[in-house]
Design brief:
By secondary structure, the chain is mainly alpha-helical. The strands form 9 sheets. A two-stranded antiparallel ribbon has the order 1-2. The chain has a two-stranded antiparallel sheet with strand order 3-4. The protein has a two-stranded antiparallel sheet with strand order 5-6. Helix 12 (290-313) runs parallel beside helix 14 (358-378) and helix 13 runs antiparallel to helix 14.
């Protein structure tokens, strides 16, 4: 393993005893089990022994003082005074050696175990059934497969509740629950009233934190994306990679090989990676460890819970981490004024507290849960005192935003089952996985079966791990048009445009029009053609150039990414001087966050915001509004807006259908026959625009590509102004007041 590499925080499984009573868990509704790829690194199998030392004796010496052997802990003695004096089947799996062995043998515990049950034994884990264990079913019903020895750990360290079980609980109170009202009790099968009550995730559920949204342990809010399994370097991506299996202690001595300021397990709380650049808890400290960020977020949520409970639920609430059921009313008894909204937030708060190693197991997943719970409480119209959400942060910068669609798009399996869940297909893996680009730059091929989905990039996506911190080398880059461009041999910015280039070009637009034999009449709606193999009709459809295709803008006509019109001359590569001595992307942007280095811009352009920069040579009134002092961004944006208006005018006149653009909904172009600027709906779904003419198709391609390049005015303003003006002109628009560069 290479040294001095600052990778994402590893999994520090706190395999301590489970404490306090086993509250009955709601039966989870099974969901389609997401699959994972088997870990490639074998976990340590035992404690090193000297030639004269019996390994079993050495292991026992480590195990004896551990939490798993502490018979005086509540996790073991809780049932010693029960009536009957036994550990029930619902708890015996994880609180008794006999129960665990019974469970791994056939997937269930057949009988209660007499109490006192005693500590865990060697035979509990060292038996054929346990060794054969390769998968774990979580409370949500999700199954993680192809596990190594950590399957033994996660059989218990997984929690007992989930989003699935909470939703099932709410469903018992009827449909369309008012999120801010205390539900009316329902009758159970014995005719007894059942009130909405707290759901406890249980204790040390490190497996649920580690696998995040793959197992849905937290209450994940609809419409939000969440991180999946926390990524770490090989050798430290399993329970036993980070913990000794007998003492349960963190292998701190191996953490120090990369994390140089770590001397004790407590020091791990101060770790913060370069990928975690945001001030999540809004305290102004972006250098504190992720554990402290989580602590700050917990305090914000707890305050929000207390405020909501008093203002909306009508009763004060307090939290005691050591006393079941944890959330208490002013009378010291179990809190009872639960609304659905309050219960979700309190459950997530408990999820974050009951895994003390959450900052390492899946810190960003926990931050997302804490943020969303606070935001959901905030959304209540009945709440008066709200949190300023602008002061806290949910997501990382783009390349490390594991919850973003750019990395979460592949989480679901295909309907036909041919594409498994959490696997990025080969065609997308280059830019939407941590391993894709390094694989290609190494001269290898991405497997046809795709690669495991991840939580954004890792250091190895751009760095040569064998010679860290050296970057991977890219001599030049071939674009979708077939053009080859470069910022210079070995320039770091070549890595950036290996992905930031788009996925379609003028060549693809022309090829599609030709395929449908539609070039002859540019204003005729393109008709469907027959598929040569199936005989089925194939409709003409929109081509998406993809997102943030900076290379297509920066290199202008040298890239030919946009649709350039015949007979026109276009500008080529942006001639801007290298910033900070570095050509292209890395000179102007922080390489990890992507944030523009505004302070460097101001060295030449003065104390002016990037959007207001014009440039000394830009003296023309390109957009014809009479203002030659406005920033070049506004010169361009006015023209871009004019292009959209011209597209709408043309579409209505030539195809009979109105058209509307929605940058957040694929395929972006929709029918708008009522002229309200929004997509028309049919059966609740947006109606995709389909009556394309070749001319409209070209214009829509250019406009979409412009919208998908939010920094176009900086990357090559004059070129995109040319594109906008020429596209307006081709549609028949009046360009007499514009000045074409």
């Amino acid at each position: 393993m290479f040294k001095k590499v600052l990778f994402a925080i590893g999994m520090l499984f706190v395999l301590a005893a489970l404490v306090v009573a086993c509250a009955p868990a709601a039966t989870p509704t099974a969901t389609e089990a997401p699959a994972t790829v088997a870990p490639t690194v074998a976990a340590p199998t035992g404690v090193p022994a000297t030639p004269t030392e019996d390994p079993a004796v050495a292991a026992q010496a480590l195990f004896a003082p551990s939490a798993h052997a502490n018979v005086d802990a509540e996790a073991f003695k809780h049932w010693n005074v029960a009536d009957p004096k036994e550990v029930p089947t619902s708890c015996a799996k994880c609180h008794t050696a006999a129960g665990f062995q019974d469970f791994v043998a056939d997937g269930k515990v057949d009988a209660a175990v007499p109490a006192p049950a005693g500590p865990f034994t060697c035979e509990m884990c060292h038996n054929d059934a346990a060794k054969a264990l390769t998968s774990v079913t979580f409370p949500s019903g999700a199954v993680i497969e192809n596990l190594g020895p950590e399957a033994i750990c996660m059989t218990c360290h997984q929690g007992r509740e989930s989003k699935v079980s909470l939703d099932a609980k709410f469903a018992k109170f009827g449909e369309n629950l008012d999120p801010d009202a205390i539900p009316t009790p329902y009758k159970d099968d014995k005719g007894k009233d059942v009130k909405l009550s707290f759901s406890n995730v249980h204790y040390f559920a490190a497996g649920g934190t580690l696998y995040g949204s793959q197992v849905h342990m937290g209450y994940e809010y609809d419409g939000k994306g969440y991180d999946i399994k926390n990524q770490h370097v090989d050798g430290f991506n399993t329970c036993l990679g980070c913990h000794d299996q007998h003492s349960q202690k963190v292998k701190v001595e191996t953490c120090t090989e990369c994390h140089q300021n770590v001397k004790t397990a407590e020091d791990l709380k101060n770790i913060r990676q370069v990928s975690s650049a945001e001030d999540y808890d809004g305290d102004g400290d972006v250098k504190e460890g992720i554990a402290l960020e989580i602590s700050g977020m917990q305090q914000i949520l707890y305050t929000s819970i207390q405020t909501y409970a008093k203002e909306v639920a009508g009763a004060e609430i307090t939290y005691d981490p050591a006393t079941y059921p944890y959330f208490m009313g002013a009378d010291g008894k179990a809190y009872s004024n639960w609304t659905p909204r309050l219960l979700k937030a309190a459950y997530n708060y408990q999820v974050s507290v009951k895994d003390p190693g959450a900052f390492a197991h899946g810190g960003k997943y926990i931050i997302e849960l804490l943020y969303d719970s606070t935001a959901d409480l905030n959304s209540s119209e009945k709440l008066t005192t709200k949190v300023d959400l602008k002061t806290i942060t949910r997501e990382d910068a783009g390349h490390f935003d594991g919850a973003a669609a750019a990395f979460r798009h592949w989480d679901a399996a295909s309907a036909d089952g041919k594409k498994p869940a959490f696997v990025v297909e080969a065609a997308c893996a280059k830019c939407h996985s941590a391993s894709g680009l390094p694989t290609l730059l190494a001269g290898q091929t991405i497997p046809e079966t795709g690669v495991p989905a991840g939580n954004g990039f890792m250091c190895s996506a751009c760095h040569d791990t064998a010679n860290f911190p050296a970057r991977l080398a890219a001599k030049d880059v071939t674009l979708p048009s077939g053009k080859v461009v470069t910022f210079g041999e070995g320039a770091d910015s070549n890595l950036c445009i290996s992905c930031h280039q788009g996925r379609a070009s003028k060549k693809d637009v022309d090829a599609k029009i030709e395929k449908f034999n539609a070039a002859a009449d540019q204003d005729k709606v393109v008709e469907a053609i027959k598929d040569a193999t199936t005989g089925n009709d194939v409709k003409f459809s929109f081509i998406n150039a993809h997102y943030l295709g900076v290379a297509a803008v920066w290199f202008g006509t040298d890239a030919q990414g946009f649709y350039e019109y015949d007979g026109k001359t276009y500008l080529g590569t942006n001639p801007h001087v290298p910033v900070d001595g570095k050509p292209g992307c890395v000179g102007c942007h922080d390489v990890h966050t992507g944030t523009p280095k505004e302070e460097l811009c101001q060295q030449c352009h003065g104390a002016v915001a990037i959007d207001d920069i014009r440039g000394m040579s830009s003296t023309s009134d390109f957009n014809g509004n009479g203002d030659v002092t406005e920033g070049i961004r506004m010169e361009y944006r006015v023209l871009r807006d004019a292009l959209y208006a011209e597209i709408q005018t043309y579409a209505k006149a030539k195809t009979g259908n109105g058209i509307a653009y929605d940058t957040n909904a694929y395929p972006y172009w929709f029918v708008d026959n009522d002229g309200d600027g929004k997509a028309d709906l049919k059966d609740g779904k947006k109606v995709a625009f389909s009556t394309w003419t070749p001319r409209l198709f070209k214009a829509a391609f250019n406009f979409n590509f412009l919208r998908k390049n939010p920094g176009a005015q900086v990357h090559n303003a004059r070129y995109v102004i040319q594109i906008a003006i020429d596209t307006i002109e081709d549609l028949g628009g009046d360009i007499s007041k514009y000045v074409r560069p």
